[in-house]
């Protein structure tokens, strides 16, 4: 914290009144997994499924956020942590506003994800960690952006899964195995999770 002479300014609405009036509940559904495991694909399909049901949902996607908010960050350990910290803070604000916030980031380190879980917990917001689980061999076979090929050829350094670590979640709220389950079933599993936490109604 660099600025000291600052104070939180509360609005006229408490979260409960806002959500009640809007008829919605916000949360963060955090997809983590290796590159090409399927995070962006599932996030987009889940966002679509929710919005088509009239539910306020919004997706924050790794590459998109690096074009704007985080365009000054690279892939060093420090920059990766800052990338995830900022996304976590933005997701928390979106969730507070009543939005189902879907994030699709490799977010390879447990400590960084646990920090995001903590800041949600501190303000009583649901944080649902979804492990998008796919064997590295299958991720390399898919390689939709050709990045594994480049990383293995040494053209990209510090690539998660090749020469940078990925720490799988130990107690995620949901594990989806994308090598064995099609996109529709993966999305349904996320919808079921949201319904089981009463964040959406089952009939929606
Ligand atoms: P990530 O965001 O994790 O880097 P992408 O979603 O960009 O991964 O790419 C995943 C690739 O795997 C896509 O080409 C997608 O079509 C394919 N794929 C195959 N099965 C699935 C599945 N069940 N869920 C998500 N993606 C899948």
Explain how this protein is built.
The structure is a single chain. By secondary structure, the chain is of the alpha/beta class. It has one domain (22-196): Rossmann fold, CATH 3.40.50. Helices cover 43% and strands 13% of the residues. It is built from 8 helices and 5 strands, in the order αβαβααβαβααβα. It has helices spanning 15-22, 39-52, 62-67, 77-96, 110-122, 136-142, 147-152, 183-196; strands at residues 27-32, 57-61, 100-104, 127-133, 174-177. Strands 2-3-1-4-5 form a 5-stranded parallel β-sheet, sandwiched between helices. Helix 2 crosses helix 8 and helix 4 (77-96) runs parallel beside helix 5. The mean pLDDT is 95. Residues 33, 35-42, 104, 142, 144, 178, 181-183, 186 line the site of adenosine-5'-diphosphate (ADP).
Concise overview:
The chain is an alpha/beta fold.
Strand content: 5-15%
CATH topology: Rossmann fold
**What is the mean pLDDT?**
95
Biggest sheet: strands side by side, in what order? Answer: 2-3-1-4-5
Classify the helix fraction into a percent range. Answer: 40-55%
- List the helices and strands in order: HEHEHHEHEHHEH
Largest sheet: 5 strands, parallel
- The general outline is globular
Low-confidence region ranges? none
Count of DSSP-assigned helices = 8
- The name of the CATH superfamily reads P-loop containing nucleotide triphosphate hydrolases
Number of strands: 5
Which architecture does the CATH hierarchy give at level 2? 3-Layer(aba) Sandwich
């Amino acid at each position: 914290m660099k600025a000291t002479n600052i104070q939180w300014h509360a609005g006229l609405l408490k979260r409960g009144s806002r959500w009640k009036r809007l008829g919605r509940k916000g949360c963060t559904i955090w997809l983590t997994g290796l590159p090409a495991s399927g995070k962006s694909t599932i996030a987009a399909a889940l966002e679509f499924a929710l919005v088509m049901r009239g539910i306020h949902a919004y997706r924050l996607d790794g590459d998109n956020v690096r074009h704007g908010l985080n365009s000054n960050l690279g892939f060093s350990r420090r920059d990766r942590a800052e990338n995830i910290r900022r996304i976590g803070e933005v997701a928390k604000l979106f969730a507070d506003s009543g939005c189902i916030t879907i994030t699709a980031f490799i977010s390879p380190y447990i400590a960084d994800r646990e920090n995001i879980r903590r800041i949600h917990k501190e303000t009583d917001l649901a944080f649902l960690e979804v492990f998008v689980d796919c064997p590295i061999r299958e991720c390399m076979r898919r390689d939709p952006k050709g990045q594994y090929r480049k990383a293995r050829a040494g053209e990209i350094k510090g690539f998660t899964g090749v020469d940078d670590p990925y720490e799988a979640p130990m107690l995620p709220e949901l594990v989806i195995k994308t090598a064995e389950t099609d996109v529709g079933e993966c999305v349904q599993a996320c919808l079921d999770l949201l319904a089981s936490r009463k964040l959406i109604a089952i009939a929606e």
